[in-house]
User: Which sequence fits this backbone?
């Protein structure tokens, strides 16, 4: 299971990616999935939501929304996580 982080703009997404990488977190940059209607078009995929959330708060990085991913027989489903 992974989590998708969305941002208000591309600058914020790139800034968050650099911060995660410098801190040693595993993070992936991806286009915003079509099943998600929030954000700037770039999203980050992380595996550990709790550690990521604490890191973001500690570093004053604001996300637009967080989505948990799960797969069913036909597609990937995105469920928004309440921040």
Assistant:
């Amino acid at each position: 299971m992974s989590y998708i982080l969305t941002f208000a703009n591309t600058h914020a997404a790139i800034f968050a990616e650099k911060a995660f990488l410098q801190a040693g977190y595993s993070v992936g940059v991806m286009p915003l999935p079509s099943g998600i209607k929030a954000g700037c078009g770039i999203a980050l995929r992380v595996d550990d939501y709790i550690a990521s959330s604490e890191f973001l708060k500690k570093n004053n990085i604001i996300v637009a929304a967080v989505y948990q991913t799960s797969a069913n027989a036909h597609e990937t489903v995105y469920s928004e996580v309440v921040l």
In short: Residues 3-81 form a domain with the Alpha-Beta Plaits fold (CATH 3.30.70). The longest strand covers residues 65-71. The chain has one domain: 3-81. The beta strands are 3-6, 27-31, 42-46, 65-71, 76-81.
